[in-house]
Here is the input.
Amino acid sequence: MILILSDDTRQKVGEKLLQDLKNKNISVEMISVADQKVGPCYSCGGCTDITYGKCIQRDDADIIFPKLMRSDVMVMVTPVKWGNYSFKTKRIFDKCAVIGDRHYYQKNGELVKGQIGNIHTFIAVGVKDEWLNGEKEAFQNLVTENIKIMNIKGKAFMVEDSNLEACLESIVEELC
Here is the structure.
């Protein structure tokens, strides 16, 4: 199953992607990040010893993470500011460490984590009205580094109004 985490209230890219995937009879669900209340990860370590596998800060991540654990693919649709994920998306993504393997190991000179659950692919869809100089490269580098750390397959897509339909087709093709 594919889980779309979408924080794009202006562009509706997540909803369009959801509909395109459903039209291909692909098992997909979407969570609107804008509707979720997720606090930051405080790096307190509570999820590794006090409440093993659960963040000690109770919030809407309790709804999101079980769905992520059952998913094969995580698609994150996010507005991009200075080459980074949106504030709400970043909070959820940071707290995803609670569902990852708590142990780092070295692979090809990089520290990586194993995965708990079924997620084997991460797709990040950066949405921007107009990309500024260097933003695409910064976003691509961020996603590439996240993919390395998670030790899974993945890809970044950069969407703007002028390439929306073509980009959605490419994303659906990648996911099929």
